[in-house]
Every structure is written in structure tokens, then in C-alpha cells.
Amino acid sequence: MSSSPKDAVSILASLTGPSDLRSLDEAQLETLCEEIRHTIVQTVAVTGGHLGSSLGVVELTVALHRLLESPCDRIVWDTGHQAYPHKLLTGRLARFGTLRQLGGVGGFPRRSESEHDVVDGGHAGTGLSIAQGLAVARDLRGTHERVVTVVGDAALMSGLALEALNDIGHRQISLLIVLNDNEMSISPTVGALSNYLSAIKLSEAWQTTKAGYDAVLERLPVVGSSAVEISRRVRKSVVNFAQQPGHLFEDLGITYIGVVPGHDLPVLLSTFRRALRLEGPVLVHVRTYKGHGYQPAELDQVAFHGAALPPMEIPGVDTSDGEQAAGSTQAVAAEAGRPQSVPPASGPAQPPLAQSGSRTNGDRTNGDGDATPSVAQAVAAARKPPTYTAVMAEELVAIGAEDPRVVAITAGMPTGTGLNRFQVAYPERFFDVGIAESHAVTLATGLALGGLRPFVAIYSTFLQRAFDQTVHDVCQNDQPVVIGVDRAGLVGEDGTSHQGMFTLPAQRQLPNIVIASPKDEQELRRLLRTAFAQDHPFALHYPRDPGFDLPGVAPTTIPIGEAEVLRDGGEIVFAGFGPIVMRALAVADALGADGWSVGVINARWARPLDERLLHRYARDARLLVTFEESVAAGGFGSAVLESIARAGIADAGLRGVPVRIIGIPEGRFVDHGSVADLRETLRLDVPGLEALVRETIAALGITPSRPVLQARSA
């Protein structure tokens, strides 16, 4: 790369967008690839960044943008640190020198930068789920844009990516997967798929445990034979993959093409052109080299992965700013002499791994964590008021009838979450991804990015498995995914692993998300309507409990962040989040009989709080008590306390207000037992809550302003 910078960017600088690539001839495209590499090296030498991964996908990026019509067609960059060529081809050349600097071009795709950036990325393994969501949304809308995702070999080994691959093959979604195989993630031992899986196949443990493992599975009741079959198919896929990579993907129902030389632009163009014409999921296996075209990065792929790089000295570029010391001058060299072969295509696709329609693998059977109910139990249950889950499901079906964009997702729990009702009503808009909560949440993000309105119902305890996806995909991209947090609070007999007590504090810290919980089942219907009437992530928490058997109301929306006063009073103020507020109301009645003036606020929202209302009632209160059926640390009560502390800096009336937070005690797990027994044990039933409040009153040494007799006679 001996040309001057002025000459080197002549074609790149003339581009107004990726569509201009279609007017360039083959020689100009090759020159453009050189210019892109030159620009990346020149820039990253100063700013730092992910050099090797971006240099490795230059030809791949040029080929995709020449064939596709972005932004109508969608290119999803898994992880995103390899997207520098994409940024240069989509109008960011003039600002590329600000890469990763404050206010400058981001190091990962950012939707705020360009309409060509489909999703804000940064974590590995998300691309397949996002792409599937976009493709499903396309099919439901009846449009024809093409969806492509570029996934690295290391990212493909993540659990989320494997969950998505299984689901994509099962559903036969039409999309193109480009496997960028450079035998590297950051360290080579975990990134090379062939070597990694070959090592598993050849290991002594694999060979010696196979017979024993299958023997154990065969003894399992009901599921034994199917489990053995799946186990053997997985083992066969691994063995086949070690011999020829395409077998793994073909066994999953994904058409495999490869291995394609990743720096041969004509071959890439020809291969992608044909692959884009095929129906169903297609994976093109592209062999690239990290750092291609820049010799230091080729020779030391680990050090030049990024984002802090070894010393680089580039002719005409001053890198001596204290961030990187001057190093030896190295010429940018073209790759030569590396063998690249294209093996024949794999044989016919085999059926994908079994898709889990419901959880049957030991931790729950009918979706509730209980055994299949007897006829007598079913009759008894029929006499109870509908559960919150049932009310939610009924309302969701009604909303789905009004809005064809509404889709529903479950992670192997259609019955337990109530979404089987939606499945019956709208089978083409229902998705059970199996026991794959992470994929469910990221798939929902892709569906939302594609213009749909997804509702993903997951038990609170299992939503813990998708925390990263909630942060990185849903909230970072600020997508209107409605998360039904089922079984929020105490669940009961399933014990420490299943209590839904940790989700609220985890979600409360996240940007963009709205968090709500109803006081009763009719308010649940209204909050569900509210969730679909707004455009941000929305977490709706509701318990396993039956409702209060209230008569139906018109499910009108509720202004976000607006609480309601259930009982007026000023000496003691209760603020509750979720159905526990009804127990707090009973405690207020008991205290009122003793002469206390007790106000009760149904907060509805943990984020955003109705600070105006809370501060108005707290300002003159002698005690403020918060109630939640969640771990007390970091939840709703903490939000109220933090709000009052902030406001108290400027408002003297809020500085001395005592606040008592009542919830599930922190620092411990909750063991098994009926919900009623657990609430009694934890003092979260009405008598227990009343006792906690009275103990707080006694500790403060305060008395009611009205005599007891006068209060009772009134």
C-alpha cells in the first residue's frame, strides 16, 4: 500500500452510499478494497480500535453491499467490531477520523449514526436471533427485503447463537448467514470450530462416557428414548462436523455452502449472488484472515484484535500522542500463498434437532412446576378466580385481534404462560423457541426492529437467564418489546431456584425500560393495553396468584408514571407496587381504626415513579412505608427512598421523613412451601405486614393525632 493517502481514497471518497458500488467494475472494486484497508489502518493507528477483525472482512463487506440494497435489505453484524468497512461504505468516511472518540463515530454499529446500521451491537452471538426476528417480521408483513447476518466462528459457539441456529433450521426462515471463519475469537484455542469440535470428538472422555451416558438416558421414564435419539444425533453431528463442517448445519436444516475464500472478491460475489436466490436458511462458510493486508496484524492476530493496540507507525501519521508509542515502520502487505479450497457442498438436509414445545426435562412439567393435575384438582381450580396469567392471556388475544403486528413468544412454556391461547387464535404469530430464554428475548428485539409488537412471556426466575439480552438488545436498542414477567414474587413449592424475587432490582437500573405491576387483575388488563400503546421496552410484572374475581372494566390505558391514591391520609403513607398493595390497604384499615390517618398509594410504576404524588404525600408524613413482593434491596422501595433523598437536597420538607421498606428480606434465598405459608413466614401476609408497621411505629415513638375512641366512633 505505497500510494499516498490522497490517491488511496479517490474511489472511496467519491461514494455517496453503498448503491454506488454497483456502478464499479471489478478492477475498481479491488482498488476500493485497498483504499478501505489503507483508511482503517491509518485511522486506527491514531484512535485505536478493532483492527484485525475489520481488515479481515473488507472483501466480504464490499460484496454484500454490492449485491444488497441497504437499508431496505438488512445486514446484521454480529458483535459489530468488524463493521469499520461497512461504516466507510455507508457515508461515514469524512468523520471516520473521530472513531471511538467522544462525540465521534462509534466502534460498533449504532442506529443513531446511520440508517444502514440495523441494530446497536457489541456483544457476541446476538446476530442470528436479531436476523431471524427481522426475517419473520418481513414474512408476516408480506414484504420481500433480504436479511443477512455476518457471524464470526467464535460467536457461533455461544449458547445464544446455537439456540438461534436450532430455531432457524426448525422454522426454515429464509435468510443468509455468513460464517466469517478466521479461526480466532481473541485467543485461537476457543475460536476455531473445526479444531474445537474435533478435540471434543477425539477426547477420551467423549469416547468413554458415551455408552454410560446413553444407558442413563434410556432409563429415564417417558422421555428416555427421545432423549437418547437426540443425544446420538448431536454426537453424530459433532463427529461429522469434525470431518466436514457442513454436516452440522445440514443436520439442523440449514443449507451449507463452503468453504469460500474470503478475500477473493469475484468468488464471494458469485457465491453470495447464488445463495441469496435460495429458499430457506442458507449458511455460506467464508474463510478469512484477521488483519489481512496489514502484516503486523497478520503475524500477531491476538495483539491486533483491539481495541488497545500495539505500537503502530504509519507513514505520514503521527501516533506519538502518549497513547501509543512509536514503533517500527511496517508496510501494508497483501496476502500471498495461503492455500484456500472449496470443498463440495454437503448432502441433503436432515431434520433439525427436536423443538421443545413445553418444558419436560425435570424442572417442570405442566408449566407451573407441579405434576399434571388430577380431575379433582382441575375441578377445584375451576372454582377459583382466574389467575393473573389467565387474565393476561385473554387480554392479549383481544389485543392481537385488533393489531396484526402483535406476536407472542414463549421459551418452552406455552401452557404455563397462558400463551397457548394466543397460539390457538393466531398460530402464525406465535413462536415457541424451546428452553432458550436468551434467544426468545433477542428474537423479540429483531421482531420489534422489523416493525412488529412482540410480547414475550417468561417466568421471573427464568428471565434471569436473559438479563444480558434485556440489557444489550432490548434496552440498548430501545425497542417496544413487552416482557411479561410471569410468577413475579413468591412462587411456592418449587423453592429457592424458582421464587421470582430478583428481577425487579435487576431491571430497575436499565435505561429506557418501563416497569409496571397491577394491584389487581383488571388493572393488569389496562397496563397490558398501556404497554402496547407506547414505544419503549416495557416489563409487566404479575404474580402466580388468582385475582380478586373483580367484575370486568373497560381496559383503558393508564398514563405512564401516574400512580393512584386508594385512601387519603397524611400521618402515615403507604406506597405499594403490585398486588401487595391490596394487603397494605387492609393494614391501613386496621391502623385507621386506632386513630391513624393513613394514606395508601397504588404506585403501579417502579420506573418511572410518580415522584410528584409521592413527594406531596411524603412531605408531611410522619412515616412512609413501601410494600413489594420482591427482594427489598434495590427494588421499588429503594427507588422511592432514592427519589426522596434526591429531592430532599432542595426540599427541606422531605429531609427527615422516615422510610421503611418492606419486601422479601435481602441476603437469603426463600425455600419451598405454599405461597400462603411463605408469606406468613416472611411476614408478607396481612397480619405480618401490620406487625412490621406497628413495630416501626413503636421504634419511632409516634402516636396517632386522633383519640382511638373518636376515630372508631367516626
Question: Can you put this structure into words, describing what you see?
Answer:
The protein has 714 residues and is of the alpha/beta class. It folds into three domains: 5-305, Rossmann fold (3-Layer(aba) Sandwich); 375-541, Rossmann fold; 565-707, 3-Layer(aba) Sandwich (Rossmann fold), CATH 3.40.50. The strands form three sheets. A seven-stranded mixed beta sheet has the order 7-6-8-9-11-10-15, with helices on both faces. It has a five-stranded parallel beta sheet with strand order 1-2-3-5-4, sandwiched between helices. The radius of gyration is 29 Å and the shape is elongated.
Strands in their spatial order, largest beta sheet: 7-6-8-9-11-10-15
Distinct helical segment count: 28
Stated plainly, the CATH topology of the largest domain is called: Rossmann fold
Number of domains: 3
| Strand fraction | 5-15%
The coarse silhouette is: elongated
| CATH C-level of the largest domain | Alpha Beta
Gross CATH architecture of the largest domain = 3-Layer(aba) Sandwich
Number of DSSP E strands: 17
Please bin the fraction of helical residues.
Answer: 25-40%
Radius of gyration: 29 Å
Low-confidence stretches: 1-9, 184-211, 320-382, 710-714
How many angstroms does the end-to-end distance come to?
Answer: 92 Å
